[in-house]
Amino acid sequence: MSLTTNEQRAESDLDLFSGDAVTDPYAALDDLRDLSAAVRMTQQDFWLLSRYADVRAAAADWQTFSSAQGVALTAQSNQNLKGSVLTSDPPEHDVLRAVLSEKLAPRGLSKVRGKIRADADALVEALVGRGSFDAVDDLATVFPVHVVADLVGLPVEGREKLHPGADASFAAFGPFSPYVQERMADLVSYQQWMGAMCDRSKLVPGGWGEVIMDAVDDGRISQLGAVKALSAYMTAGMDTTVNAISALVRLFAEQPEVWSALQADPALAGPVFEEVLRLESPVQGFWRVTTRDVEVGGTTIPAGDQVMLHWGAANRDPRHYPDPAVFDLHRNPLDHLAFGYGVHGCAGQGLARMEVVELLGSLLRHVERFSLAGEVVRRDNPIVRSLAAVPVTVEPKG
Ligand code: HEM
Known about the structure:
Elements: E1 3-5, E2 10-12, H1 20-23, H2 26-35, E3 38-41, E4 46-49, H3 52-60, E5 65-66, H4 75-81, H5 92-98, H6 101-104, H7 106-110, H8 113-130, E6 132-134, H9 135-140, H10 142-152, H11 162-171, H12 178-182, H13 184-197, H14 208-217, H15 223-236, H16 239-254, H17 256-264, H18 269-280, E7 285-290, E8 294-296, E9 299-301, E10 306-310, H19 311-314, H20 349-366, E11 367-372, E12 377-379, E13 386-389, E14 391-396
The chain binds protoporphyrin IX containing FE.
């Protein structure tokens, strides 16, 4: 990688979406963050914002850093995403976001807490009974897929398409890399299934899917808008939570003192989750397009340029978090940017927190200790910080 500064701008020719930069991006991101507030990434022609204060300010300023021209890197992906909640600005954005806002608000979520707890208990009991399992394939992938698909009201048949499809969809926010090319079949089959599910006869009554179809019937969104809405919520609710849960179990197996602290004080479940989100930032970043010339830390970004808001880099900015690479049980970083910020701040963060706190509660009821039973394997998704395998053995609670 070469880093250069001149009077006009700082530049880097690093490809953030391949090789070592995907496996372990943080040393490179530290250099880029120190180089300048805004760095021109010349391989793919976008600006990178990596400092906490700048990323947060840009996310708050949707008028200047617009989502309406797309939040993915490539024109093809932005065309596919057009008309979704993610890729719109107010006021259109607010209409789309309102469709499921009651279901995802605290009152709506409180109605599903009991079911989520029972589902967590059933899954954890079965896995603990086995003694060893893969925390990615057997736990982290199964639980959010089951919870979100039930909430939407999707049939059981076909759900196996959801996690591979969401993984590929997230990767497609970045460049058209080999990772995306190898997963095109998953992506297409997932999108086709989402399209087919936008039909009342396929959906279980009372779920989010039915609420989306009500919005079609009363003219708030189009039939195509329904497919975009269903895909946006399904995709956003999969790989994100899957990877946060995988990272948590890995942490408990690698740092047993964290699990012991949680056993001694279960109220730490929330703070532990927030700190893992800060450290891992499952969604590493999304793009915006500038609507005017804008200055960021002394660099002028011209109107019409793509700018990546790097949540992962911002969450490890030493200007904001002391010792940012260290897991700190007591940091409780509620201001982290792993859920984004501003009008597009994660619509499902209440649900994600509920899923994880209920799952941790269930693990606390059933597991005395976790140990690694093999090698942790990383999945090289260029956008989602991902694990492919976390084999563990568990000692059940006596
Ligand atoms: C740990 C889990 C999660 C993480 C880390 C996460 C992360 C994010 C981030 C970073 C954004 C901001 C995108 C942007 O600014 O362009 C976002 C938006 C969004 N998330 Fe999440 N998410 C998680 C779970 C969920 C869940 C469970 C759902 C719903 C089932 C969900 C639904 C959404 C939706 C619909 C948006 C778009 C909101 C908008 O554009 O107004 N997310 N999420």
